Amino acid sequence: xPARVAVFVFxxxxxxxxxxxxxxxxxxxxxxxxxxxxxxxxxTTTNSAPSALQAEANSAATGDVPDNQVFIGFRDTAPAYxxxxxxxxxxxxxxxRVTFRDKNNIxxxxxxxxxxxxxxxxxxxxxxxxxxxxQSGPQLLTISGAREFKVVYTTASPPNAVTGKRVxxxxxxxYLSRAGKEAIVDLGTPVGVDNVDAYRLMIESFRWR
Length: 209
Known about the structure:
Elements: H1 2-45, E1 71-76, E2 81-86, E3 90-94, E4 97-102, E5 105-113, H2 119-127, E6 132-143, E7 146-156, E8 168-178, E9 181-190, H3 196-204, E10 207-208
Antiparallel strand pairs: 1-2, 2-10, 3-4, 4-5, 5-9, 6-7, 7-8, 8-9
């Protein structure tokens, strides 16, 4: 009898251990599922097109780009394009996504693979810009001999933590394409600042390489 009792107790212990092991393994399975779902969610919500430009709430509006401003050339061989920008502006990023900034004067270039844009595809893209208010476009125009599109929108920064004030940008967005590549160029300046001539020079200097 004692031997049978010992065997029974040993078998019961194995059963309890098996249940505990099964319960302890459950969180790791759940963790993998959550990670997978999060990844899948990220893929569905990620958009290759650039978002609306974002002004800096803590930065005061800059003045006009001066008439005697020196422009220098930027070239990147990977996405194969070049463009001029004002000397002294800070560069962030490189390659297919680069930004030039002087406080709240902002120029951003994003290059992605893509078909030649149409007015319909541009309207769909602009509808996805959170916080942007379209002022005009899409407008078909000619830049450096090529037919391209332009949209104008405004976007505001978050409120300043101290003053509560916002900086509103007026942004010219250009859609440029060639040979299966699309460049979206955003040129933003604070409302009330006149950088029309400087920004025209910059967009007209854009060249595919």
